[in-house]
Amino acid sequence: MKKIIIFLTLLLAITGCESQLDKMLPRNAIPLDEMTADDIEKLMTGVYAEIERQQFNGWFDFDYKAENYKEGPGWVLTDPVMMTPGDGDIKNRWQTSFVVLNQVNALIESYEALSGAPTAKEKQIGGTGYFFRALIYYDMAIRWGNVPILDKQNENLVPISQEENVWAFTEGNIEKALSILQGFTNSYYVSLEAAQALAARIYLARGNKTKVLENVNAVLLNNNFILANTSEEFASIYVTDAKSKETIFGLANKRSTGQLVFSQKLNDVDPTWDYSPATDVFQSLFADDNILNRKGDRRAKATFSSDDKRVIKFPNGISGQQLVPTPDQANTPIVISRIAEMYLIKAELLGPVDGADILLAFLQKRYDNVPTNAAIQALSESDFQDLILDERHREFYGEGYWWFDIKRTGRLDLLKTLNGRNYLMYYPIPQNEIDLAGTTAYPQNPGYAGAK
């Protein structure tokens, strides 16, 4: 029986069979017995595939909720920030997160059950598990706040925990990953630097300046990562096998079945796609800044095309419609962290005076003309925040950052359709989960129907 259980667990991890995986929610789990080191490595391969699905599943929601997109045919986006407990996409995002979490927990439990001192290879596998668990819980914490904490596979109902405890669990996992992961060798595999980049993101959300700078500086000192200097180099970040020096960690997304294709979700005004760029964003996002002399944004040509208002940041495989040709538009890498984020995080934390140098080093790689150091230092704190947010908006357009950037900085004024409905800055707990678990174990988030 033991070998059958192991086989089924591995099979589910590697194939990602949705008919089976969709049954595994926070209230139940995959059965698991002991595994060998070889079994664990195979399971880790399956976990990478499932993390691809989890990341892609939530990739676009922070952009459409933050008014970066307009709807395509068959998709209504008149009120992009609006959510209800019965929304199918909210349910799908929740369930996908916990389905994949079960796979990650299987990997971690197997690593922790190994006898004797773990080898370097085994530590790397364990560190990868902790990294992915931190990534999943970061994604859930910034959306729902209060979620169940599953540190192992569990067939029993696990009540929802308070947001503060969820963040503490997330921090604990990234710290475990940092303690055992090895240094960077390939951007398609979890590394120490990938964990440092994620730790910086987690601690930025928590307002822990010391921990943010500790991890950001460690990545910035690493010679493996270099900012793109041209439009073509920037576009290459999103081209399969381009091996961009910008990327700290990304998922290869090379699937023969169940492909995760960016351009099938986001492209242009043609009726094939769910989303196209919002008109005002398309027209003004990369406009020259005559006040600070930020002119000639090199990211513009790699993000938008004048041809039918297309987003070309993620290649669509159509000749002439992408800045850098791709061998296969269905295999666009899912980029999790880039060196650009580290520059912008550090500048944001240091402020206009102390952060001018690091920000200017970043701007020099992105623009034909840049402001002077003195001009940046002369900015007020609020104007500097506007500048950082504008740079993050330009840099990470279409990469799922903008809604949480607005939330974590308290700049709700940037959401034109929010209209005072601030409760929408937390996602609702899916109603079907509450119906199954009960309102005591799964209380609804404030503001939504059924909340106490």
UniProtKB/TrEMBL annotation:
Similarity section: Belongs to the SusD family.
Localization per Swiss-Prot or TrEMBL: Cell outer membrane
Primary localisation category: membrane
Protein name per Swiss-Prot or TrEMBL: SusD family protein
Entry-linked InterPro entries: SusD-like_N (IPR033985), SusD_RagB_dom (IPR012944), TPR-like_helical_dom_sf (IPR011990)
Domain SusD-like N-terminal: 81-204
Domain RagB/SusD: 313-410
A Pfam family annotated for this UniProt entry: SusD-like_3
Any single GO CC term annotated in Swiss-Prot or TrEMBL for this entry: cell outer membrane
Gene3D superfamilies: 1.25.40.390
Keyword terms: Cell outer membrane, Membrane, Signal
